[in-house]
Specification:
The chain is of the alpha/beta class. It is built from 14 helices and 21 strands.
């Protein structure tokens, strides 16, 4: 078997893996990228396509679901061409379209079907799969996962009533879109929806789901599932809920089962890789991206590559990295929440909220749901922002950039925007914050 030597071997041809490979090759090092599995690494493209189709063609049922998935598959293929094996190879990456497993011996090697790889450092950029809850009767009753829907939307053909389990972004995205396409959806969450996000915007989103017809049951942990007369019954507290199908969206975990990492890495009880602030695992020669959000994983990859190659060491900060949830209207957030700011700063925390209706474009389009909350210090330092409303995912990046660059609230207040536009909320909320500072 042929043996190949590399400075860096990247395992997992996800968006983060491909970005890491190109970044490493640009530094002039010998780099290999192994295909491995990508799993749910592209979930956001599917849910975004699904949200758009449900908004444009509500009630289109299984045909609408199939059309949205086809659109997402087309987009994934088009984007993959931009970082295809040919493009990677042309830029100096040895792309290996094979699965690899780590050796069990004292040396850290990767073996594929045709070659043995040895690298000075390794970077894991895994795909993701649905995390399955330990729930009595679930396996016997049967369930679906998002990846099954993407692969075969026909699995929902005969189902009319759906129970979606989870409080995650994926759970709320699927709940709204499938409800709008024509299914009857009950969303069961063991706590509040989106528990890591700001409570105000999470409540705004929950109100929108309920307005769309989704039955939202928060603080409703399912304890048992059973099948009776062709229906699936879920027990949540003192409620028994009958549905045709159960979909799990309880969270994701990295797809590592076939890599034979053994005891080299520390893995948490829910299957997550443990890394330090430099994205280094328990093994000093193995680094890893640990977030399932593709954009955040790409940011992690840049830090991990620099640290793996011994360049000026960097630590990973998530503070200025925005996230978006593909609902209608969208939810977007960056930085601190109000709860965290008040815990850390007490009276020095400055919390300002404006309503989406204050933006002229929102009025023109009758899209006045939601608003924007800005989190800052009283000295003007911007700490976070949370928005639910028209085009929020498009303009949250401006606030994220301000946080990243250390710009004060006054700079946001002076930010030029076009009119009419949804981005008017940025200077509006900043000016409101400045007034509070002066009080």
């Amino acid at each position: 078997m042929m043996t190949s030597q590399y400075d860096l071997a990247i395992v997992g041809a996800t968006a983060a893996g491909r970005a890491a490979a190109l970044g490493a090759a640009a530094r002039g090092v010998r780099v290999a990228l192994l295909e491995q599995g990508v799993g749910l690494a592209q979930a956001k493209l599917y849910t975004t396509a699904l949200c758009a189709h449900a908004q444009q063609q509500p009630g289109s049922g299984i045909g609408g679901l199939q059309a949205a998935i086809a659109k997402a598959n087309w987009a994934i293929a088009a984007l993959s061409e931009q970082q295809s094996a040919w493009v990677l190879g042309d830029r100096g990456v040895d792309y290996i379209a094979e699965f690899g497993q780590f050796s069990s011996g004292p040396t850290l090697d990767l073996a594929t079907a045709t070659r043995q790889l040895h690298a000075t450092r390794y970077l894991l950029t895994p795909g993701w799969r649905s995390r399955l809850p330990q729930l009595a009767g679930l396996n016997e009753a049967g369930y679906l996962t998002p990846e099954q829907i993407w692969a075969d939307p026909q699995c929902l053909l005969t189902a009319r009533r759906l129970a979606i389990l989870g409080a995650t972004a994926l759970a709320v995205e699927l709940a709204q879109s499938l409800q709008r396409l024509g299914w009857s959806v009950t969303l069961l969450a063991p706590q509040q929806l989106l528990p890591t996000l700001d409570r105000t915007v999470a409540y705004w989103l929950q109100a929108q789901l309920e307005a769309d017809g989704v039955e939202v049951l928060t603080h409703s942990a399912v304890t048992q599932v059973r099948t009776l007369d062709g229906q699936k019954w879920l027990q949540a507290g003192d409620q028994a809920i009958a549905v045709d199908e159960i979909m799990l969206a309880c969270g994701l975990q990295p797809e590592l089962s076939d890599w034979q990492l053994g005891e080299r890495l520390a893995i948490t009880a829910n299957g997550q890789l443990q890394v330090n602030a430099r994205l280094q695992t328990a093994h000093p020669h193995i680094f890893a991206c640990r977030r399932s959000d593709a954009a955040i994983a790409v940011a992690e990859a840049a830090i991990a590559v620099a640290n793996a190659l011994g360049q000026p060491r960097q630590t990973m900060s998530y503070h200025a990295l925005p996230i978006a949830i593909a609902t209608d209207p969208p939810l977007a957030a960056v930085g601190w929440t109000e709860t965290w700011a008040r815990q850390q700063l007490a009276a020095e925390a400055l919390i300002t909220t404006v309503q989406a209706a204050q933006a002229s474009r929102a009025q023109l389009l009758d899209a006045t749901t939601g608003g924007c909350k800005l989190i800052a210090r009283r000295d003007g330092e911007i700490l976070g922002a949370h928005a639910f409303g028209l085009a929020a995912a498009e303009w949250i990046g401006a606030i994220a950039f301000a946080i990243q660059q250390g710009l004060p609230v006054a700079d946001l207040a002076a930010m030029p925007v076009t009119q009419p536009s949804a981005s008017e909320l940025i200077p509006l909320v900043a000016r409101a914050a400045l007034k509070q500072c002066q009080q």
